[in-house]
């Protein structure tokens, strides 16, 4: 991760001036605040600010005048109840603001999550850094043969080396041209808002991304999932570790009901009931499509 000594000093300075507060504080999140966590080769994620903790969820659910919390065991039970029954608004009482540095092609997937507030680094105003995501060789994989939207076997030998070389060379060439187009040495210099159009999608951008806990869980449910592309998934996995420190009870409930849980269709419930009664049910009898049946069997055997 390429943070300059000045940027690191800024982060340290922010951490060096704690202030007393009457607001809810999460010890786990305080330990994380402002610190940068590396993701991919030049990416990062860090928490800039947050509001609320596990107790704030309980407090909102009980519409309490005070802290709202009774015993940790009661609080955990209530949070699990809320998660189990999709009672989402108490989770919206907690908010978090991240600073994320990510490749543009990852940002395109991320921005589809509309229920967040975003402010992105302006490449009309500023010059982008010469930083490109170059995958590790073990991430250079062929098109999947079973999933049209994914990757399969890792490329081997010469092909892998050739692809890596092309990625590096194209990134370097397009950034050289970007600089040459912007340059005002002996020419007018193309506007930054135009010169950027020639840059590849693996260049890094940055944004501040603010979201409430309910919508963050929705994002993590989709993007920390094995079906999500690796390059966004590892951001989501880092966020999961942060959220686990911030709101440990809520995260445990989310992990159990959403990440670890399974949703069943009515047909799937009927098949499971018949199986439990000792019946052998085939895909044709199940009423499920082949794809649905395959996914069902992956979970239930
Ligand atoms: C594995 C995977 C593959 C994907 N593949 C593709 C793809 O091929 N092409 C593609 O275009 N996208 C793709 N997506 C993006 C996906 O379709 C969603 O756009 C994205 O995951 C954001 O989800 P969301 O709309 O639920 O989230 P958010 O935008 O955060 O919205 C959260 C919830 O709020 C509600 N909501 C928000 N805005 C509105 C609105 N305007 N109207 C009604 N309800 C609203 C909905 O209930 C929504 O579920 C993919 C996503 C994943 C995880």
Automatic annotation (TrEMBL):
Cofactor: FAD
Gene Ontology biological process terms from the UniProt entry: dTMP biosynthetic process; dTTP biosynthetic process; methylation
Keyword Flavoprotein among UniProt keywords: yes
Active site: 223 (involved in ionization of n3 of dump, leading to its activation)
Cofactor binding remark: Binds 4 FAD per tetramer. Each FAD binding site is formed by three monomers.
Catalytic activity: dUMP + (6R)-5,10-methylene-5,6,7,8-tetrahydrofolate + NADPH + H(+) = dTMP + (6S)-5,6,7,8-tetrahydrofolate + NADP(+)
Enzyme superclass (EC): transferase
Keywords from the UniProt entry: FAD, Flavoprotein, Methyltransferase, NADP, Nucleotide biosynthesis, Transferase
One Pfam family, short name: Thy1
Pathway the protein acts in: Pyrimidine metabolism; dTTP biosynthesis
Domain of life: Bacteria
UniProt GO MF annotations: flavin adenine dinucleotide binding; NADPH binding; thymidylate synthase (FAD) activity; thymidylate synthase activity
Entry binding sites for FAD: 89, 112-114, 120, 212-214, 218
EC number(s) recorded for this UniProt protein: 2.1.1.148
PROSITE patterns for the chain: THYX
Keyword Flavoprotein appears in the UniProt entry: yes
HAMAP family with a match to the protein in the record: ThyX (MF_01408)
Quaternary assembly: Homotetramer.
PANTHER family membership: FLAVIN-DEPENDENT THYMIDYLATE SYNTHASE
Task performed by this protein: Catalyzes the reductive methylation of 2'-deoxyuridine-5'-monophosphate (dUMP) to 2'-deoxythymidine-5'-monophosphate (dTMP) while utilizing 5,10-methylenetetrahydrofolate (mTHF) as the methyl donor, and NADPH and FADH(2) as the reductant.
Name of the molecule in the record: Flavin-dependent thymidylate synthase
Organism: Stagnihabitans tardus
């Amino acid at each position: 991760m390429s943070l300059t000594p000045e940027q690191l000093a800024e982060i340290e300075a922010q951490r060096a001036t704690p202030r007393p507060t009457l607001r809810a504080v999460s010890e786990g999140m305080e330990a994380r605040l402002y610190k940068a966590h590396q993701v991919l080769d030049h990416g990062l994620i860090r928490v800039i600010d947050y509001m609320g903790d596990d107790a704030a969820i309980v407090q909102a659910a009980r519409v309490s005048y005070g802290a709202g919390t009774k015993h940790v065991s009661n609080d955990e039970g209530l949070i699990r109840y809320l998660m189990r029954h999709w009672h989402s608004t108490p989770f919206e009482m907690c908010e978090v603001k991240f600073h994320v540095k990510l490749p543009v092609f990852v940002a395109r997937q991320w921005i589809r999550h509309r229920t967040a507030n975003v402010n992105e680094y302006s490449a009309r105003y500023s010059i982008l850094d010469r930083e490109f995501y170059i995958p590790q060789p073990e991430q250079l994989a062929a098109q999947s043969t079973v999933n049209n939207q994914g990757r399969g076997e890792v490329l081997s030998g010469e092909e892998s080396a050739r692809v890596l070389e092309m990625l590096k060379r194209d990134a370097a060439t397009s950034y050289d041209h970007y600089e040459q187009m912007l340059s005002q040495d002996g020419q007018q210099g193309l506007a930054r808002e135009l010169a950027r159009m020639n840059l590849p999608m693996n260049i890094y951008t940055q944004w501040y991304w603010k979201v409430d806990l309910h919508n963050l869980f929705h994002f993590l449910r989709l993007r920390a999932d094995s079906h999500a592309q690796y390059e966004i998934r590892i951001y989501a996995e880092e966020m999961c570790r942060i959220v686990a420190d911030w709101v440990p009870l809520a995260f445990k409930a989310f992990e159990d009901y959403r990440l670890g849980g399974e949703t069943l269709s009515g047909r799937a419930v009927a098949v499971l009931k018949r199986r439990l009664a000792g019946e052998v049910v085939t895909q044709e009898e199940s009423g499920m499509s082949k794809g649905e049946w395959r996914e069902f069997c992956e979970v239930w055997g």
